[in-house]
Structure formats: C-alpha cells, structure tokens
Write a structure and sequence with these properties.
Elements lengths: L10 H11 L6 H22 L3 E3 L13 E3 L4 H14 L9 E7 L5 E7 L4 E5 L24
Helix pairs in contact: 1-2
Amino acid sequence: MFGEQAKKDTPQHLAADVSNESLHTNDQNLTQVMTENIGEAIDFISDFVNLNYGKAQTQTPEHSIDRQIKLSSSSSYELVKKAAEAFTKKGGQIFLDARVEHILQDENGKVTGVVAEGRKRTLTVHADAITLSTGGYGANLNMRGKKAKG
C-alpha cells in the first residue's frame, strides 16, 4: 500500500526511527524483536481477526518513511472486540480482573500456567499456551504522571 516507499524500509530503518522517537531510551533488544517481527505480526492478526488495514491519511512525523496504517473504522475498539471474538471461537478463554501473581513452570522452565488474583477469587490456570495482556495504566490515576492528571 506504500508503493515504492515500502522498498526503502527495513527493520533497521524502523529501529532507528523508534530509537530517535524515544530519545534513545528504548531497549535495543526489544526494539529489534519488534522491528523484525512486526510485519508478520500484523499479517497474522489481520488474517486471524479479519481486519482490513489501509494507509493512514496522515503519517506521523517521527517516522522518516511513510509506514503508518489504520483500521477502516479508526477504532482500536474494533481490533479488541474482533480479536476477543476470534480468540474465543478458537477455544481460548479470557479472564478479566485477574492480576497474575505467579507463573507456573515445569522442571525445564516451560510455562504451564499462572496463578492470578481477582477481586473476589484466586484463579489457577493450567494451559499449553498462556498470553499475558496487561493493557495500559491510563485509567489508573495513581500511576499517571502529574501532567496527565485530569
């Protein structure tokens, strides 16, 4: 969707943009993992959830190459709703209000489950695959900086 400009982009180029945008405070190893896998990750989630991305009308100035995409609805709610529906259709379970307190592992270090605390219960989950999703802390006023209050 970005035509000839896309040929100029590389994981290394994206990593440089991320590093510049974060004033070089980013973790280089995590940035490398992200930049080397972001294309496949977007392809996967687009197919899994049936999302149609397009070129964003405006491109962020932090990027030296046009690469910003958007959903046709411009809504992250669409992504979350469709991802949750697709996940549960495939047999996945979503536990809300469950703060992970302990990761269960076998003798080889493989993750086999979690112990989580909710408001009203302790939850122990054993599974072949676990995904921890923390979300943001924007709704937690105590965790936001003074400039973000209100």
